[in-house]
Each structure stands twice: as structure tokens, then as C-alpha cells.
Design a protein that fits this description.
Strand 1 and strand 2 form a beta hairpin. The protein is α/β, with parallel strands linked by helices. The chain contains 7 helices and 8 strands. Helix 6 runs parallel beside helix 7. The chain is globular.
Length: 236
């Protein structure tokens, strides 16, 4: 097995894999530098691994009667394609379901994992409207072609999936959601997650969350285009 860079483990979650009792596995490295990222310690290429694959697999094996699945997130998991595939094959042998969190920049990796039967569902971040993508993801001049390819492929319905956007006051405006709605038209589930300030954020100054009323207004903009829009990080 190629060594995979595992930088964090949440032993039990009811949130990261909706409807399942799961563990969340955090992989190191990312090709974005979103200034609002809460996992900024995972971004660098030199971030050290905290666990070996063997340690994680042993933990999952011991908890296999409790856990129903794993959520593999980051960072950006698809930046380690060969190691990720090997690791997911071992996870699958434990009989666990697998959810992949991704920014959609490596559609070929996501498709290959699906073709191999190694992922059961996908959560893809839609960082912003296309016109503002580079600013919001911290990668000026970002190539949107692979991201658009990922969106189009997921919309074909090969796997259960959701799209989600973290809404950040100071980065996002109504215009973003006016662009996002038509872009993801036809998707069954779209979530707007409210930004929450934290010491772990990559660039904490100048950002804030939106009010519930503002988020509901954004949801209303997208709602005509999708099956369901819901808010996360807001008490109803």
C-alpha cells in the first residue's frame, strides 16, 4: 500500500455522514487556500502525518460493530489518488460505507473511485459563483473546467451526492447565489453552511457569519433550481 497522509481522526460523528454513524478521516494537503478554511493546519504539502493507515484500519476494525461508514475529507483527499484508492479498498473490506468530501478539482480521481465501487456518496464544495471562485478559494486564475466537469458528472446521478457552500460575510454576496443556482440546477440537495469564526481559520480577520434572515434569502435564490435547500450552522 502506498503511504497515505492521514492527519486527523474524529472517532465518531453523526453529522459528517448524514444518516450514518461514522468516523471522519482527515487527509493532509490541499490545492486551495480558502481564507475561511477551518482546517488550515492540513493545507501545506509538508504537513506531517499523525496516523498510519494501519493504525486507522485497526481502529475501524475494532469499531466496526458501531460504525456504519467513514467520511474521508481534508485538505483535499483526491490529491493522493493511488494511496487513497489503496486505503479505501482496505476500508471497504471492513464492510463500511465511504463518503468522499472534495473540492471537485480532480474529477478523474472521483470517477475512478466510483467505477471501482470505493465510494458510496460525495459531498462537493461549491466555493462561490464562477466569477468569484478564484478569490474565494484563494487560488487566483483557478481553472474551473475540472470543477465544472465534477458538477456535471455528479448531476448525472451515478452516486448520491450533495453540493454545499460555506457562506462568509466579507467574501460572498447575493450575486454568488444567483450564479450558483443555475450552475447546479437539478441537484437534489444543496446546503448553505454559515461561517463560524475560529482560531483555526487560515485568515480570520475581516470575516463573519451571516444572519439567519440573510442565509434564508440566499436559499430562496437557489431554491427554484434544486430539489432541496437547507441551512447548516443556524438554529431554526
Amino acid at each position: 500500500m502506498k503511504e497515505i497522509k492521514i492527519c486527523g481522526l474524529q472517532k465518531t460523528t453523526l453529522l459528517d455522514y448524514p444518516g450514518r454513524v461514522a468516523a471522519t478521516i482527515f487527509l493532509g494537503g490541499c490545492n486551495f487556500r480558502c481564507p475561511f478554511c477551518h482546517n488550515s493546519e492540513l493545507l501545506g504539502s509538508d504537513v506531517p502525518a499523525e496516523y498510519t493507515a494501519e493504525e486507522i484500519l485497526e481502529f475501524l476494525k475494532k469499531r466496526s460493530r458501531i460504525l456504519e461508514g467513514v467520511c474521508v475529507t481534508g485538505g483535499e483527499p483526491t490529491l493522493q489518488p493511488e494511496a487513497l484508492e489503496d486505503f479505501l479498498r482496505d476500508v471497504r473490506r471492513l464492510g463500511l460505507l465511504i463518503k468522499l468530501d472534495t473540492n471537485g478539482t480532480r474529477p478523474e480521481v472521483m470517477k475512478h473511485l466510483a467505477e471501482c465501487g470505493l465510494i458510496d456518496c460525495v459531498a462537493m464544495d461549491i466555493k462561490a459563483g464562477p466569477e468569484h471562485y478564484g478569490t474565494v478559494c484563494g487560488a487566483a486564475g483557478v481553472d474551473l473546467a475540472p470543477i465544472r466537469e465534477s458538477v456535471s458528472w455528479l448531476k448525472q446521478g451515478t452516486l448520491p451526492y450533495e453540493f454545499r457552500t460555506t457562506a462568509v460575510k466579507g467574501l460572498h454576496t447575493q450575486e454568488d447565489f444567483e450564479q450558483i443556482g443555475p450552475w447546479i440546477a437539478g441537484c437534489p440537495h444543496y446546503y448553505i453552511q454559515n461561517y463560524v469564526a475560529s482560531e483555526r481559520v487560515l485568515a480570520p480577520d475581516g470575516f463573519d457569519g451571516f444572519t439567519k434572515e440573510e442565509l434564508l434569502a440566499f436559499a430562496d435564490i437557489v431554491r427554484p433550481h434544486v430539489g432541496e435547500v437547507a441551512l447548516r450552522g443556524i438554529d431554526y
